[in-house]
Amino acid sequence: MIDDSAPQLPPLYESLTWLTPLSEERAARLVTFLSEPAPAQVLDMGCGWGELLLRVLAEVPGARGRGVDSAVVSIDRATQQAAARGLADRVTFEAMPGLEVEDRPADAVICIGASQIWGPPVEEAQPLDYAAALRALRGLVRPGGRLVYGEAIWSTAPHPAATAPLAGRDDEYLTADALRQQVRAAGFEVVDDDQADLGEWDVFEAGFRARFTRWLQANGADHPAATEVRRRHEEQRAAYEEGYRGVLGMTYLCLRG
Questions:
Q1: pTM over 0.85, yes/no
Q2: Which of 47, 66, 168, 191 has its C-alpha lying 20 to 30 A from 137's C-alpha?
Q3: End-to-end CA distance of the chain, in Å?
Q4: Could you tell me if 113 and 70 are in contact, meaning their C-beta atoms sit under 8 angstroms apart?
């Protein structure tokens, strides 16, 4: 994957609503699932800048929320957004490793693209440990509660051009069918199951690359780092458009505990 070292790029929240390929229509369906019946407590593991959690709290005035993420910049953004939307008194955002979270089950839980919390370090480029994540999440969902679990999968058989910009291995992700088996083995009932389409992926990837364009617009073509930023933009574009587009998928499962 692309290194986010210097030069410092604009934060992703300036060009993306969601840190995942997710349309507004799909997000609304996820919010409805998490909101009906109204939960008392909502937990978001790997919350990023907290957009989905904040929308659930706006939908359910009596609910309280907690978001956890290891990225301080994301937690700062989430905290600012909670205040701006008048939700600061009903939500807390914590910058901490997910494994340090107290085992306090919630009525509604969100975990999107954060299974690595319970697996080997990302730097080791090992297969994603869905089973460990689902076991841990089962303990965080109250009996009869709900979980939105979103995670990367292989939509089609991986090939070298697709795996090279990722971890470089065919077993990094499961297929949708294999993941459903893991979900049921962890004790969840599948209420709904759908994958992000290519339109959602295209918007996400374009937003991800937009930070490079924004940096170049702000700093100019003669900046000493401009060549490096252009290289990284092209590397990301090629990785997606010539590599994992249509191969790497994102599935969103609405589960009941």
A1: yes
A2: 168
A3: 34
A4: no
